[in-house]
Automatic annotation (TrEMBL), chains A, B, C, D:
This is Zinc-dependent alcohol dehydrogenase family protein. The lineage of its organism: Bacteria, Bacillati, Actinomycetota, Actinomycetes, Mycobacteriales. Transmembrane segments: none annotated. Residues 171-291 form the Alcohol dehydrogenase-like C-terminal domain. InterPro entries: ADH-like_C (IPR013149), ADH-like_N (IPR013154), ADH_Zn_CS (IPR002328), GroES-like_sf (IPR011032), NAD(P)-bd_dom_sf (IPR036291), Zn_alcohol_dh (IPR050129). Keywords: Metal-binding, Oxidoreductase, Zinc. Belongs to the zinc-containing alcohol dehydrogenase family. Its cofactor is Zn(2+). CDD domains: threonine_DH_like (cd08234).
Length: 331, 331, 331, 331
């Protein structure tokens, strides 16, 4: 089959590799679309170190083309989306039910061959079967949506609160769509990149601005979500979290980034800071919400390239003009 | 002013009574609309015993027409909705933050003169100021909505779950509207009264039926909400709560009603049963959600009568043909 | 090795069977002690149907005597306790992090050979390593304790509440010991079997009685835990749950048992009913609490017999005179 | 009566002032003991600005000596402890059930005359009646204990976790006593002041050290509680919070203190930071726990002076040699 392969940092090509063979409980998925996200860039740039070479791609959906000998849950032809998580199931955190903190964290497209290929292998338990009407290419968004669902699980917010989101990239906009559909009284979005604010408005933002200072809410927001990973946004967001409110660190900062906060405010105003990391028990629900029409895929997916142009797709994503970039292995 | 007065069980009239005079922290509200609910019927029928005579009406909104000497929070002309709760603030439960379980529970329209009148008195802290655009007559729905918000606080449900609601009366339909806007993967509604199902569909129900057996979900629903108070519905609903799921008792049964359940299932399937009683910390958020357009008032409010026809309005409500019945003291 | 074997309902013997051979990630445990509980009786009596014959025993601890080829986490000689849970990891509930509701629920001593034998096999991930000082025979209590920890996770009670426990058998007394060490303001115990109340007092109960009516608490208890499975106790306990309180169904009723409750009270008093089923993410913490001295094993373990007397041990347990009965395969 | 009076920053005296007169729902308490804490120092030093002059003292207990005309809940002679909180009940946060974040926060001994006097006035709802056996002087510890109960409410920790506390002053030691009685697997205490560690050990600490680096727990603690307010401790504590764990900011830093944290860790390890501010719905439960013997008062209360020596008591507390300093208005 054809597949994108990252051989070493900076060296990515599309080439012919052997087709995958399913183990007894594995399924071979014919990939309809595979999204690109920051993690792929980190792997391609060598900042994140799985053992190379690797076929990248952890956001994908497709059709079942072959099943392992002990698979009864799906059939050839089923439309499926794939949870890339490969928790060990044996470490302290897996035993505590917090597999996303697994001491041996691994994932399809990160530690094992992923979806930037004609075919990809996945354990059957990682599949969510999709109903007939779903457009498979769009379903590659279920993975990022499942991160957002995890974030909202962590927040476990009451209805009727005001939410402020920093960042109107793919993840900020998916958080926005979740927020407007889960009982927020209002959802405001801040992005320094003014070009993205119109999209936020289109997707239901109550107010948008290039700086939160422009938004008229001196008492702050009950919930603030950082979807930038940028320290300036994090510190600004923390300062705008209302008394009694919660700040969610969803964006991924550099490992050595340092943010400042006021411990007096944490105490005196009972501010809560929480973090949300990838996918936990959230993928099947994200698949259901996606199937129920939660996500405006046409707005979020801005670039679709053939698999053969995977290196160009990486560059397009790096350029940051559009939102979600996908490769379509079927053409 | 003109006001409806319940003198004794079965004896309701509309008459001229003295205008209310505000205490220092009170506000006089010119009532735009006052909704009728089961509690009013209970009072009029003598099943529920405040000291009579009383001006009923605990679901109302209007305009500020006079303020007490120490009121600074609102001004004459402000549009307001009124939380009828009058918790004592001093009992065991009030001190625990559970005022809706107050040992000295009282409410405007139940223990003190209510909104079925041209003017009604309320402590300023019970008011939620509404933004300009809001239609005041519709805002009388904020009170029932605030009960629904309490129910959803109690549920504190994760997103992406399947919800089944019994009852498509006003409360079932408000629960439905809340559920479809708070991240449910699907919301089904059952009502033995087939005539009400079309309204449920219009308001966003995924599926409707006169019996849950017709809905194709053998494994059950993660969340089941009873909005009937009828034992047959409660027992059916409990049996259809999915393994690990939650059953919410929102409907008000007779005090001596008895329902059966399987303690083995509670244990073995870790089913949770919770209850939700009136309003707790939920009124201001309901007001915000209402102002944000959460409720389709045109569909829910089916009957609007002048205040002078209060007895007829009670009868209309008792007849149960429409959904929410209101009296409009302004004409 | 020698092992107890249940061949068919009513037919239990101790015999010589082949020693277990570990798979790559398995460990062979030399069993120090194996407790007997109601589940063993159900298997022996044919009320619960794993495929027979089976070596029973799901409450055990011992020493590592052999490790599989890929085991690095423990060494021969380590003292370990064994979580019997064998969740499939692939079903809907396992993916939701609720493995104890696994659609393919299985357990060591129930679906696979258990601890009523000289040696028992367990996946390494099921082991909790114990510190040096621990008495291994007592450590067989970690399994029932881990059920209690699950119950307390479900309760997630605030400190400073009053707790009432029905049943002073092994499980009631372990719940008692947990309650007195987790911030209850008081813990009362009711058992119709007066002979067991002195033990409850010894283990820290604030008050004991053969009927809750004798305990002077007319407003009820914030938390009521049923550890009997008996409908009379459940209904009594529900009626004594205080306004705003929680009833935990820990005891296992017959599958067809029916209990009555007042749906009006659930609503009006916001009573919560929850259930707790076996072990979920709780075994390692139970092992830590046990090692920290949470349990008075000398009081709870009343009967210790050699493995050869397994049938007699079953009968002793059935007789119900003592509390926990164990067999000691080492002599 | 005799009372301590803070006239202006730096000017504290004990003098004769008029006896308090109860309003209809007030109670006059004959103060048995009044504890001194950092807040009193802040008031005396002018860093915290209620309108002066004021009688300080918000930690006190005593006997009812007079009741207002509408008081029926207590009788002259009752032993009581006093919740100093005076939430307005009308602001946004009070209406949300978060009175400790009240926009008009006030308290006995801070905004109104307090307990450093022979007699003190309190609304009847602020009283917790104590059982006969309780030593009234010790009961002045209920107020700081009620802050600790609030902290544990915020934590809502599962049982069986490892806890690390920074600071072995009165508050650290009360947090320690709560932790050892609420199901921690271990509780370690760090204080730079080595002289206080022996007390921590006496009160049940599993391990103590002058630096957390000495404690052998490289993976960190599931729960870390700062009871110092010192940035160095906060930053060290944050760094030792285990993956998936929670850091509680209980200590009060300077308003302009700044602490650094890693937003990457918050995200990647899903670390939670929470704060706990004073008393919320926790006083009555603290009173119950105190009456049940939760606190070793003899160890915590190190200095007892007559009321006449209030200025000396402030200085003793400032000196920081002992732990809790009290004045005893009865002699
Ligand atoms: N928690 C999880 O499980 C999870 C999962 C996936 C992704 N993530 C993370 O989520 C974050 C967002 O992902 P994405 O794909 O949406 O990234 P993105 O496309 O780069 O979007 C981030 C947006 O934030 C804007 N921004 C930068 N600094 C800002 C500031 N100070 N104030 C306001 N806006 C600012 C950026 O503007 P410019 O373009 O002008 O810089 C950009 O538009 C990333 O950190 C990603 O790693 C987290
Ligand atoms: N928890 C709270 O805070 C709160 C607040 C307000 C109201 N409530 C309660 O909520 C409930 C609903 O109020 P509402 O105003 O919506 O009442 P409603 O208009 O009477 O609606 C109840 C609906 O349930 C239907 N129903 C009756 N038995 C049923 C069954 N076995 N299965 C399915 N549907 C069945 C009724 O049909 P028929 O017309 O054919 O009988 C009716 O359409 C009441 O019990 C009310 O007291 C609770
Ligand atoms: N949730 C879980 O994960 C889990 C785990 C293990 C066990 N369990 C269950 O927990 C329950 C207790 O187990 P156990 O080993 O402690 O059982 P046990 O030894 O039989 O103890 C039950 C006690 O309850 C007493 N009792 C019976 N009816 C009562 C009533 N109406 N009021 C008060 N006390 C009454 C019994 O007295 P008599 O002896 O006079 O009948 C007996 O002393 C069982 O149902 C068991 O299956 C649950
Ligand atoms: N959240 C609330 O509701 C609430 C209520 C009451 C009090 N508080 C706060 O709780 C904190 C503790 O009160 P307290 O009365 O116990 O105070 P305290 O007596 O001053 O105790 C603090 C202890 O922390 C030690 N310490 C200082 N820096 C340290 C470091 N880097 N590492 C380890 N230990 C260090 C101090 O040692 P040295 O003596 O050598 O400095 C002292 O022994 C205060 O900030 C107080 O304001 C909070
Ligand atoms: Zn793991
Ligand atoms: Zn009350
Ligand atoms: Zn499973
Ligand atoms: Zn307030």
């Amino acid at each position: 089959m054809r597949a994108a392969v990252i051989h070493e940092p900076g060296k990515v090509s599309v080439e012919t590799v052997p087709d995958p063979t399913p183990g007894p409980r594995d399924v071979v998925v014919g990939v309809a679309a595979c999204g690109i996200c920051g993690t792929d860039l980190h792997i391609a740039d060598g900042e994140f170190a799985p053992s190379l070479p690797i076929i990248p791609g952890h956001e994908f959906a497709g059709e079942v083309v072959e099943i392992g000998s002990d698979v009864t849950e799906v059939r050839v032809g089923d439309k499926v989306a794939v949870d890339p998580s490969l928790f060990c199931g044996e470490c302290h955190f897996c035993k505590l039910g917090r597999g996303n903190l697994c001491d041996n964290w691994a994932a399809i497209g990160v530690s094992k061959a992923g979806g930037a290929a004609e075919f990809a292998l996945a354990p059957v338990k990682n599949l969510s079967v999709l109903p007939e009407g779903v457009r498979l290419e769009d379903a590659a968004l279920i993975e990022p949506l499942s991160c957002v669902v995890r974030g909202f699980d962590v927040l476990s917010a009451r209805v009727g609160q005001h939410i402020l989101i920093y960042g109107a990239g793919t993840m900020g906009l998916l958080n926005l769509q979740m927020a407007v559909r889960t009982g927020a009284a209002s959802v405001s979005v801040v992005d320094t990149n003014a070009g993205r604010l119109a999209t936020a408005t289109k997707l239901g933002a109550t107010a948008v601005a290039t700086s939160a200072a422009e938004l008229d809410r001196p008492l702050g927001w009950e919930i603030v979500i950082d979807c930038t990973g940028v320290v300036a946004a994090i510190e600004d967001g923390f300062s705008r979290t209302r008394k009694g409110g919660t700040f969610l660190q969803f964006g991924v900062s550099n490992e050595d980034a340092v943010a400042k906060f006021s411990p007096f405010r944490i105490y005196n105003q009972e501010i809560t800071i929480v973090g949300s990391m990838a996918v936990l028990h959230s993928y099947p629900r994200a698949a259901e919400l996606f199937a129920a029409g939660f996500v405006d895929a046409d707005t979020i997916i801005t670039d679709r390239l053939p698999l053969e142009q995977y290196p160009a797709a990486l560059d397009a994503f790096r350029g940051g003009k559009g939102l979600k970039t996908q490769v379509l292995p079927r053409g």
